[in-house]
Amino acid sequence: MMDLAVMVRDDGGIIRQWSDGCRRLYGWDALDAIGQPAHALLQTIFPVPSAGIEAALQSAGEWSGELRQRRRDGSEVIVAVHQVLQRDAAGGKAQVLESMTDITRQRLADTEARDNEIRLRLVQQVGGIAWSDHAYPDDQALVSEGFAVLYGLPQGQTHISDQAWLMLVHPDDRLRMAAIIERMLGHGGSTASEFRIQRADGSIRWVSMRAEAFLRQDGSPLRLITAQQDITEIMLARRTRFRGIFDSQFQFIGVMTDDSPGAEPAEATAPWNAGEATAAPPERMWQRLGQAAREVAGGRRDAPPEDAERRLLVDFSLRSVRDPGTGEISWVIAEGQNLAERHDLAERMAQAQTLQALGQLAGGIAHDLNNIFQTVSGAADLLTRRPGDPERTGRLARRVADAAARGSSVAQRLLSFARRVPGSTEAVETADMLAGIREILAHTLGQTIDVRAEVAAGAPRLVADRGQLETALVNLATNARDAMPDGGTLVLSAEPEQVVPGVPHPAGLAPGSYVRLSVADTGAGMDAATLLRASEPFFTTKLPGQGSGLGLTMVRRFAEEAGGAFLLSSRPGAGTTAVMWLRQAAERAGVAPVAGGTTEMTAPSQVMLVDDDDMVRETLAADLEDLGVATLAAAGGPEAIARLSAGEPVDAIVTDYSMQGMDGLAVIRKAQALRPGLPCFLLTGFADPRVALTDADAFTFVRKPVAGRDLAVRITAAVQKARASRHPEQASAHH
Question: How far is residue 36's CA from residue 396's CA, in Å, rounded to a whole number?
Answer without folding.
Answer: 114
